[in-house]
Design a protein that fits this description.
- This protein is α/β, with parallel strands linked by helices.
- It folds into 2 domains: 123 residues, Response regulator (Rossmann fold), CATH 3.40.50.2300; 95 residues, Arc Repressor Mutant, subunit A (Orthogonal Bundle).
- 40% of the residues lie in helices and 22% in strands.
- The strands form 3 sheets. A 5-stranded parallel beta sheet has the order 2-1-3-4-5, sandwiched between helices. Strands 6-7-8-9 form a 4-stranded antiparallel beta sheet, covered by helices on one side.
- Helix 2 packs parallel to helix 3.
- It is elongated.
- The structure holds calcium ion.
- Calcium ion binds next to loops.
């Protein structure tokens, strides 16, 4: 995890650098806004911790410049206590979170982890493996760029398998997760549903389908190149 800290107050910078390193982050530090903006623009950081009041370019201007240039690097702002306007403006400009001074470095670390978890969850709104793509918000499924109509159940089944490509799921696991209630385990509704999905994407043959049968166990989503 590579972090950029842009902060001019030496005391704060020292304890943040030390604390982040202690928690396993790599940290680069800039003590002014102009260098900070240049470094932040490089795109090599996983997260940017940005003070607002800085010599040279101020934090909000840096943030505005980054977002205007298309940067999506997560930014956590360090704000003075009671500077509500700064926080609101920062969030409106595209900050992902903020922390008021003074703060404990443990809180900064916890905020960074929470922010990254949130962002990775959002990014996973679209699952894509090989030629199959699934949008969890619009609930649209595309195969080789063509939209395929799936029922809710079919969608949920694909999503369940696709979240862990290569992992084998038993019929019972699939039943519990996709159908929500206990079925007679001898039922073949899972197999029937998978056959329907394969037909819809024009791949009735198991050898070509992204959903592979694992004899005697259940099914898995093939681990394909590309993701
Ligand atoms: Ca400052």
């Amino acid at each position: 995890m590579k972090t950029l800290l842009i902060e001019d107050e030496k005391k704060i910078a020292d304890f943040v650098c030390a604390g982040l390193k202690e928690h396993g982050f790599a940290v680069d530090h800039c003590d002014n806004g102009n260098d900070g903006y240049d470094k932040a623009s490089s795109g090599i950081y996983d997260v940017i911790v940005l003070d607002i009041m800085l010599p040279g370019r101020d934090g909000l201007s840096i943030l505005k410049g980054l977002r205007k240039a298309g940067s999506t690097t997560p930014v956590i702002l360090l704000t003075a206590r009671n500077e509500l306007d700064d926080r609101i403006e920062g969030l409106n400009l595209g900050a992902d979170d903020y922390l008021s001074k003074p703060f404990f470095v443990e809180e900064l670390v916890a905020r960074i982890h929470a922010m990254l978890r949130r962002i990775s969850g959002e990014r996973q709104n679209v699952l894509a493996v090989g030629d199959l793509r699934l949008d969890r918000i619009s609930r649209e499924v595309t195969w080789k760029g063509q939209t395929v109509d799936m029922t809710g159940r079919e969608f949920n089944l694909i999503e369940y398998l696709m979240r862990s490509p290569g992992r084998v799921f038993t019929r019972t696991q699939i039943l519990e997760h996709v159908w929500d209630y206990d079925f007679d385990p001898s039922t073949n509704i899972v197999d029937v549903c998978i056959q329907r999905i394969r037909k819809k994407i024009g791949l009735a043959n198991d050898g070509e389908s992204p959903i592979e049968s694992v004899r005697g166990i259940g099914y898995r989503f093939r681990k394909l190149g590309g993701s």
